[in-house]
Design goal:
Bound molecules: xanthosine-5'-monophosphate
Strand content: 15-25%
Number of strands: 18
Helix content: 25-40%
Number of helices: 14
Shape: globular
C-alpha cells in the first residue's frame, strides 16, 4: 500500500528542504518538486496536501514564478508559506503590496486560536518573518487568522476550501511553535494519519525499484561514502545480482579504506551484488604528477574517475540503469548553479559520456543526509560506515597541497589515521565539549628544518584541521584541548616518517574552506 503523500511545490525559497523534513518528522511522507510540476502529474500523484514554499520573487515581478489557478479547484488542502501565501492571495484575487520596510527576524504574532492551524499554539507566539511584500487584502472567502504589529495578514485561511497561508516560516526553528502548525496542517487539515517511517521508506523504495527495474541490469559507482553505500544496499535488496557496483580506488582514499569497502561489499561481505574493485592508483598518480593547481587537480581526478568507470562499464556492456547516490542537498546545489565556482565538486552531476544506459535511478534523491543515515541503519549497514564523516570525492588529492605523490599520500594517510583515532578517543572521554563534524589531517607543501636525535631533518609539515558546522557552508574551528593536540603531534612525529612539524589550523570558513584545496 502506498503511503500518504504531501507535495512541497518549490518556488525557489531557501528553506524548502526544511519544510519537507518537518513534514516527515510528523511521520508523513513528503516530496519536494519544482513549481513546474504539472497539474496532471499532481493529480496522478494524488497527494493529501500541497505546500507552496517561499521564494525570492515578488508576485508582480517580471520573472515571478506562478502556478495555474486550477490547483485550488482540486479539493486538495494547500498551505502557502511566505511567497507561497502571497501567490495564493494574488491568484485568488487578493491584493499584495510592497512594504516600505522589510519585516525580518523573530516577530511576535497574534493568532486566532479557532483556526485549525493554531489550536495548539499560544495566542501570542514568536515567528520567523522574512519578507518585503505582504498581503494587504485577502481574497474573497478568506479570513485573517494572524497578525503582527507590521503585518495585517500574517496568516489567512478559507476553511471550507481547506486553503491556508502564513506569511511567516513555520518550518524554521525560530518559529517557536512552527512544528505544531505544520503538524496541524498535515494531520488535522489534510487528515494524514502519519503512516510513514524510515522502514516504510525502505519497503516502498525496494518495491518501486523492483517495479521499475524489472529484469534490467543496474550499474552503480560505489565510493564507500554513506550515500552511494546506502543506495547500493537498497538496490541490492531490490534486485540482487542484477546490480553491479564498481568501486574505483583512486589511491587517494583514507588509510585502509579500500579494503574496508571491499570487506563490506565484496564477495565476503553481506550483500548480494556483483562487486568490482578497480585498483587505479597508478593511473591517478601518473596523471597528477607535477600538477599543483587545485582546480586542475580536481578536474584531473574527476575526469580520470569517469574514464576508469567507463572502461569498466564497457566490459559489462549495455546496462539498463545507472544508479547514483544523489541526495536532496546535491539536487539543490547542482540545480542553482548561479553562484561563483569556489571549487568544482566531484560527484555532483558529473555523468560518464560513454556508458550505455537507458535511465538514471536515484533512490535517495528526496532524502537529507541524516535521513539517509537512518535508512542506512534500517538496512543494517555498519555504524562506522553510516556515521562516517564527509569525505570529498577527490579524496586526499585536495588534502595534499601542491603536487601529489605516492609518498605524500602515505604520509597524510598515516597522520590522518592517528589524528582521527585520538580525536575519537578524546570525544569518547568527554574532553572535547563541542565535538567536530569533520576532522582530518592534511599535508602542507612546506618542508622545513628540524632535528631528530642528533640529526638535521628537512621534512613536511602536517596540518590538523577540525571544524564544527551545521551545513558545511560556514564552519568554525573546533576547540580541541591542547593536551590532545600535543599527543597527536607526538604520535605523528614519532610514527610517521617524513614529518617533522605538526600545525593546527585555526581558520574558520569563511575565510578558509574546510578542505585545503
Ligand atoms: P569546502 O572545502 O568547500 O568543503 O569548505 C565543504 C564540504 O564539502 C566537502 N567537499 C566535497 N564533497 N565532493 C564532495 O562530495 C567534492 O569534490 C568536495 N569538495 C569538498 C568537504 O569535505 C566539506 O565537507
Amino acid at each position: 500500500m502506498r503511503n500518504e503523500l504531501i507535495i512541497v511545490l518549490d518556488f525557489g525559497g531557501q528553506y524548502n528542504q526544511l519544510i519537507a523534513r518537518r513534514v516527515r518528522e510528523c511521520q508523513v511522507y513528503c516530496e519536494v518538486h519544482p513549481y513546474t510540476l504539472s497539474l496532471d502529474k499532481i493529480k496522478e500523484m494524488n497527494p493529501k496536501g500541497i505546500i507552496f514554499t517561499g521564494g525570492p520573487n515578488s508576485v508582480y515581478g517580471e520573472d515571478a514564478l506562478s502556478y495555474s489557478k486550477e490547483i485550488f479547484e482540486l479539493g486538495i488542502p494547500i498551505l502557502g508559506i511566505c511567497y507561497g501565501s502571497q501567490l495564493m492571495a494574488h491568484l485568488l484575487g487578493g491584493t499584495v503590496k510592497t512594504a516600505p520596510v522589510s519585516e525580518y527576524g523573530k516577530t511576535e504574532v497574534t493568532v486566532d486560536k479557532k483556526s485549525k492551524l493554531f489550536q495548539e499554539v499560544q495566542e501570542k507566539s514568536i515567528c520567523w518573518m522574512s519578507h518585503t511584500d505582504y498581503i494587504a487584502k485577502v481574497p474573497e472567502g478568506f479570513e485573517v487568522t494572524a497578525t503582527t504589529a507590521n503585518c495585517p495578514v500574517a496568516a489567512m485561511e478559507y476553511k471550507e476550501k481547506r486553503l491556508y497561508a502564513t506569511q511567516f516560516h513555520p518550518e524554521v526553528v525560530h518559529t517557536k511553535e512552527g512544528t505544531k502548525m505544520l503538524s496541524a496542517f498535515v494531520k488535522d487539515v489534510c487528515q494524514c494519519s502519519g503512516d510513514w517511517e524510515m522502514s516504510s521508506f525502505v519497503e516502498e523504495a525496494v518495491t518501486s525499484l523492483r517495479e521499475k527495474i524489472g529484469n534490467g541490469k543496474v550499474l552503480c559507482a560505489l565510493s564507500g561514502g554513506v550515500d552511494s553505500s546506502v543506495a547500493a544496499v537498497l538496490l541490492s535488496k531490490a534486485v540482487g545480482k542484477q546490480l553491479t557496483c564498481v568501486f574505483v580506488d583512486h589511491g587517494l582514499l583514507r588509510k585502509n579504506e579500500g579494503d574496508e569497502v571491499e570487506e563490506i561489499f565484496g564477495p565476503k561481505g553481506n550483500y548480494e551484488l556483483n562487486f568490482i574493485r578497480v585498483n587505479a592508483q597508478e593511473r591517478f598518480y601518473e596523471k597528477l604528477a607535477g600538477k599543483v593547481d587545485p582546480e586542475e587537480k580536481r578536474h584531473i581526478i574527476g575526469e580520470e574517475f569517469i574514464r576508469v568507470f567507463e572502461e569498466e562499464a564497457k566490459k559489462i556492456g549495455a546496462v539498463d540503469y545507472l544508479a547514483q547516490g544523489t541526495i536532496y542537498p546535491d539536487v539543490i546545489e547542482s540545480g542553482l548553479g548561479k553562484s561563483a565556482t569556489i571549487k568544482s565538486h566531484h560527484n555532483v552531476g558529473g555523468l560518464p559520456d560513454h556508458v550505455d544506459f537507458r535511465e538514471i535511478v536515484e533512490p535517495l534523491r528526496m532524502l537529507f543526509k541524516d535521513e539517509v543515515r537512518k535508512v542506512g541503519l534500517e538496512l543494517g549497514i555498519p555504524d562506522y560506515l553510516v556515521f562516517r564523516q564527509p569525505f570529498p570525492g577527490p579524496g586526499l588529492g585536495v588534502r595534499i597541497v601542491g603536487d601529489v605523490t605516492e609518498n605524500k599520500v602515505k604520509i597524510v594517510q598515516d597522520a590522518d589515521a592517528i589524528y582521527r583515532e585520538e580525536v575519537d578517543l578524546a570525544v569518547k572521554e568527554g574532553l572535547i565539549q563541542n565535538p567536530p563534524n569533520q576532522y582530518f589531517a592534511a599535508l602542507s607543501n612546506m618542508r622545513s628544518v628540524g632535528v631528530m636525535g642528533d640529526f638535521r631533518t628537512y621534512d613536511y609539515a602536517v596540518v590538523l584541521r577540525a571544524v564544527c558546522t551545521d551545513d558545511f557552508m560556514t564552519a568554525d574551528c573546533t576547540d580541541i584541548p591542547f593536551e590532545v593536540l600535543q599527543k597527536c603531534m607526538n604520535r605523528i612525529i614519532n610514527e610517521v616518517k617524513g614529518v617533522n612539524r605538526v600545525m593546527y589550523d585555526l581558520t574558520s570558513k569563511p575565510p578558509g574552506t574546510i578542505e585545503m584545496e
